[in-house]
Amino acid sequence: MEQLKVSTKSNPNSVAGAMAGVLRQHGIVEVQVVGAGALNQAIKAVAIARGYVAAGGIDLVCVPTFADIEIDGERRTAIRLVIEDRLRRPIDASVVLPDEIIDVDALEALVAVDPTTN
Amino acid sequence: MEQLKVSTKSNPNSVAGAMAGVLRQHGIVEVQVVGAGALNQAIKAVAIARGYVAAGGIDLVCVPTFADIEIDGERRTAIRLVIEDRLRRPIDASVVLPDEIIDVDALEALVAVDPTTN
Lengths: 118, 118
What we know:
The structure is a homodimer.
Chain A: E1 3-5, H1 12-26, E2 28-33, H2 36-54, E3 60-71, E4 74-85, H3 104-111
């Protein structure tokens, strides 16, 4: 599963665009965050991305779980969000990408920041 | 729809217990938060509540949307989370309430704090 890392400095609109791009390619996207600020940006992005896919009849839902991760040798608890259609219908054709998205990989790089900066 | 208000000081375990109680009664629960700290507690609570209902085959999902609210005459943007079974199956019999929950109303009162304290 494609994983986006979102930090407290990530722009929710950019993250939503990257989510839409990954959803179009894979039908599912996972976001991992450490800390309240990063989670806030990620959840805002999900709310925005819902709008990108709603026109295609897709009902984007989000499933949060805990994840134990290691950052610089220290154990931390991250939140992992799995984002997909409620009924796991194919999403590819129904995702309206925002105008500014040309290269999804470039956008993914924008939001895939080092989790230690969260 | 039953709405829980969660603040940055809410205990995620207590909120998860209240969610489980409302899910058992109504099959759906809505949480409203203002601010990153409150959202963090609410999402942790959803992750915990997933465990309470998983044994009954319920797959709890969360749908975040923006909500314009007014606090003391000022307009603020809240995040609203709708939490329910992925397939909207009846939940009542399958929710395992944590041992400490005797009175759901009392628990709801615990988490239904004034949103101005978020």
